[in-house]
Structure formats: C-alpha cells, structure tokens
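>> received
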Amino acid sequence: MKPERKKFIMVFQSTEDFQIYKSYMPAYDLESAEILAKCFRGIIVGQLNWFDEEIYYEEVIKDEMMSLQKRIDEDGTGDY
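>> returned
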C-alpha cells in the first residue's frame, strides 16, 4: 500500500506576467514537494492539515523574504 499524499502549499512567480501564484501540490513528503517546487521556481510555504486548513511554515517564509531582500539590495532586482 502506497503512503497517502499530503497537500503542500507552493508559491511561485509566473515568467510570463510576473504575477505571484499559490498552488496546492500533492506529494508524499516535504522533500518531494520541494523538488517539484524547484521545477516551477517556487517554494513550499506550508501544507494542508486533515481538515484542509492551511498551515504555514513561518520560518521558511521569513528566510525567503530575507533572501529576496538581500538580492534586491545587491543588484536592484529580485530575480533568481
């Protein structure tokens, strides 16, 4: 029997219109979700619990915002 997939919350930016999008990504574990998110140049910021309530990883969001601010300070853009 396969393990049940969890739903992770991914945030990514479109390369076409540069809008920020949120998506639910099914994956077996956090590591798998992070690998898939990198394919979309996104990050995993949380997951859904048993009741489909969104639970956010505050430390991941803080770290990503600090990293983005550092890139902006260094070269004036937030591009990866």
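>> The CA atoms of residues 9 and 24 lie 5 Å apart.
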